[in-house]
Amino acid sequence: MIGFTHYLILSTILFGIGMYGVLSKRNAVAVLMSVEIMLNAVNINFVAISRFINSEPGVGQLFAIFVIVVAAAEVAVGLALIITIYKQKKSVNLDDFDLLKW
Amino acid sequence: MSLNDAVFFLLAVITAGSALGVITSRNIVYSALLLVVTFLGVAGLYFQMNAGFIGLVQILIYGGAISVLIIFAIMLVMDVEPHRTNPPSPRLPRRLGGIYLSILLVITMGAAIWFTHWPLAVGTTGADEMAVLADLMLGKYVVAFEIAAVLLLVAIVGAIILAKGADDK
Asked: Where are the transmembrane segments (chain B) (predicted)?
């Protein structure tokens, strides 16, 4: 019988996959995509808790909506940053983004 | 195994498999397309949890808007051959560290989740969930709702200024 723990474990696996992508990928767009996977994992947790745990109904789903709003804002600003840096450096490799390093 | 369980396992395999494909593919266009599959799989999980509104929001915002935005950005910044656009880090310690930390997280969190006794609700939640959501959004959490709106506006303005450049009129 599929229950609460299965959803949480699937969400943990997705979070781990996203974390590996953030730590090991060098393309800035790929890192943003991994961050999106991690945010999706968090959203699965929110919705599962709202569905299975006896609490105020709907609050988990509401927080999932707020997470989606912040993720949309994050991806818009992040991609604008990447395009701006690409115009200056002609690269999307994170190892080349060392303007703030001294 | 009931039909519900079979659907869950199917969605779980699709979602986790395509997420793995996102981070293992060496062509970033394939990564972006697999990311759309991941988003749709997560939307299916929401539908299975009786969260239809969130599922639709997921399809519209993630499957539609965010994936199109990501693919646009990829097309704007792709300058080498497609199969070399998304390589893993050339440094082996960094990759091994990433694998180690991720597996450690999954094992410890998975064990903690599995052995915890959760205070599960007995019944299902109410049927008219969108009315509940709207009530919360414009009632108790109206300040957070307005701040989210302002955040989106600021993000749009900031993205335009960043991508266009503030000084070239």
From this structure: 6-23, 28-47, 53-78, 99-121, 141-163
* CATH T-level topology, domain B1-93: Four Helix Bundle (Hemerythrin (Met), subunit A) (1.20.120)
User: B69, A86: Cβ pair inside 8 Å?
Assistant: no
Number of domains comprising chain A: 1
CATH number of the domain residue A69 falls in: 1.10.287.3510
For residue A53, the enclosing domain spans 4-91
- Domain-wise residue ranges, chain B: 1-93, 125-169
Contact A5 B118 (CB under 8 A): yes
Q: What is the pLDDT of residues A15-32, one digit of tens each?
A: 999 999 999 888 889 999
pLDDT per position in chain A (102 positions), as tens?
Answer: 778 889 999 999 999 999 999 998 888 899 999 999 999 999 999 999 888 887 777 888 899 999 999 999 999 999 998 888 888 888 888 877 777 776
- What distance in Å separates the CA atoms of residue A84 and residue B21, rounded to the nearest whole number? 28
Q: Compute CA B31 distance to the chain's CA centroid, rounded to the nearest angstrom.
A: 14
Q: Does A86 touch chain B (CB under 8 A)?
A: yes
Closest CA to B99 of B28, B23, B46, B150: B23
Which DSSP symbol is given to B62? I
Residue A93 backbone phi and psi in degrees, to 5: -80, 125
What pTM did the predictor assign?
Answer: 0.89
